[in-house]
Amino acid sequence: GEDVEQSLFLSVREGDSSVINCTYTDSSSTYLYWYKQEPGAGLQLLTYIFSNMDMKQDQRLTVLLNKKDKHLSLRIADTQTGDSAIYFCAETRRPSNDYKLSFGAGTTVTVRA
Amino acid sequence: SAVISQKPSRDICQRGTSLTIQCQVDSQVTMMFWYRQQPGQSLTLIATANQGSEATYESGFVIDKFPISRPNLTFSTLTVSNMSPEDSSIYLCSVPGRVAYEQYFGPGTRLTVT
Fold first, then answer.
1. Could you read off the pLDDT of A9-41 as tens digits, one per residue?
2. Average pLDDT over chain A, rounded to whole?
3. Are the beta carbons of A32 and A72 closer than 8 angstroms?
4. Closest CA to A88 of A54, A29, A43, A51
5. What is the C-alpha separation between B41 and B38, in angstroms, rounded?
6. Nearest CA in chain B to A106
7. C-alpha–C-alpha distance, residues B68 and B52, integer Å
8. Inter-chain residue contact A43 with B41, CB threshold 8 Å
9. What pairs with residue A6 in β-bridges?
């Protein structure tokens, strides 16, 4: 995960908003992703954003992309206990048929009552 | 989204043995990917499996250690050969979705080598 970096831990109170941050190095990144991994489970695709977009919203999830700073964030509104998981940022690069993903180290989100 | 299943879901193996992991997808896909997630770590791509051609391996992974088969467009296997404790990981297969650039993962195979 050298090309994609994330903070390792986040603790948030139930009902508050969570913001998970990610930075990437390659300006040719085309799509950026957020995956969720619950304990003992596989990876769930939460959302993704194309590099020509600034923001994408899907229910409680808001993704913000700052291309200039190569910074991606995931905001979870009204965080619930079921949101406790590891969140991975990932990116894919050109050429356009390259589906290979590069992952960050993952941010462990703990929701406390 | 694609429905992906893997077998086995977990296994405990002795060093020096081999384990073959199966990945089944509910739709035909050209590309399938195999990733490794070592304990407490992120995911690392092992190889890309294309139907009808040899798998393409990433730096640090070789065919003798991780042979891959891709007999058709819905199925692939990854073998972890001559295992050592360092191979203890979660192995996941991944496929692109019907919508461009969506990628989905199987539930993973949790391997422990003793």
1. 999 999 999 999 999 987 777 889 999 999 888
2. 90
3. yes
4. A43
5. 5
6. B42
7. 12
8. no
9. A22
Mutation target among A5, A30, A43 for the B interface, most CBs of B within 10 A: A43
Decide if pLDDT at A1 tops 50: no
Instruction: Using DSSP bridges, classify how beta strands A61-66 and A85-93 pair: parallel, antiparallel or unpaired.
Output: unpaired
pLDDT tens digits along A41-52 = 889 999 999 888
Give the distance, in angstroms, between the CA of residue A15 and the centroid of all CA atoms in the same chain: 20
Distance CA B59, CA A65 (A): 30
Calpha distance A21→A34 (Å, rounded): 11
Three-state DSSP at A97 gives coil
**Cβ–Cβ contact A34 with B under 8 A:** no
A14 is written with which tokens? 């139930």
